[in-house]
Amino acid sequence: MKGNLHLLLLLVFGTISLQAQTFREISTGSQYNDQVYFQLSDFTPTAVANDSWDLAFTAFGVQDAGIHVNESARLDNNPPPVQLFFAPSNNFDDIFQESELTDRLVNSEESWSWGAGNHGRDLANFADYGWGMYNPAINQVIGNKVYVMAMRDGSYKKFIIDSLVATTYYLRHADLDGNNEMSATINKADHSEAGMAYFSFSTNSTINTIPAKWDLFFGRYRALLPDGTPYDVTGILSHPTLEVAEINDLPAEEVDQNTSLTFEDRIDVIGSDWKGFSFTSGWILADSLSYVVKMPNNQLYKLVFIDFEGSGTGTATFEQSDLGILSSNRDLGPQGASWSVFPNPISDGRFTLSLDLDQQLNNAEVSLFNTLGQQLWQRQLATQVGLNAYELELPNALPAGQYWIRLQAASGQLVKSVYIK
Question: pLDDT tens across 375-394, in order?
Fold first, then answer.
């Protein structure tokens, strides 16, 4: 049946594409040996081996400092994944033993801004990044944590991020006994378009095989059960500039731009639960399930998954439909308010805030915050029932990167991420 399905896809490809619909096949290889970074706008998939990198440093802007670990590994764990641990002490010169390592650290499933290397941070303290503390007197993040990485070849590395100075991370790593100490620098400015800098301990440098522009990540990563137990999944994570809506109560063919859509900026909205496994039937895809991806320019794409081949080929097949540009009143949120920011990313400081209201808001204001939680700009808004549009302008001196816009009123608040180029 699977072969007949693929033949059918080839036969109908021409007519489907005329209706702005196309079938895509993304393969992560046998045993999920690869990661695939995929661009929706021009169907550009780039596959890289799971072991191409070890750590990823966020490069969204000046204020971010997220540290991710590469959780991808083959299904048979040959070679095994890298694993990150807190070191037994925070003195980099101490000698550590493998037996002292406990509690593997995992990445966040919600955001690329915070990874395994940011565990333990005080959420109430904007200056605490987990691996280090921001010092406003010198405008630097100073490292105060030592980590140990279990490598795929069975060896171990200890490392510390000494500091983040302006856009440059300063990293030191060595064997557990202190031998083979090396230093590296990772400049976020060199990776600002991609938003992440991917570092390999084996080469002591960042890699350039992952494309600067991508929308969806296909591959293996660690997820958490409701009780907090981590487990490995094969799934899909979205780029931080995208928002995704999941529709699971409507036949996929009925989903279009007029569908009531609730967009989320979590990176795992698609995740791995669009499929399930039965020991009698094999892989089963969820019924009446589709996703709508909103691009930074408000372009909408609908994704409907129709086949998954499992670890034999690692191939997922889905239908991609172009739904056009989102109208200003379609980004639905709570509090009876629908709002959007356009353009996003913001290129010259000027943007339009569109606000569709079921009721007038009292004491409404819009504010801009950096990723440290510092308010940088604020304006009062006069609102009325219906569609409101405000032409606004941000300060000129803001550095490029990720920020948060908050719409606040007496009845509550809405927050969304924006990017400044």
Answer: 889 999 988 888 888 999 99
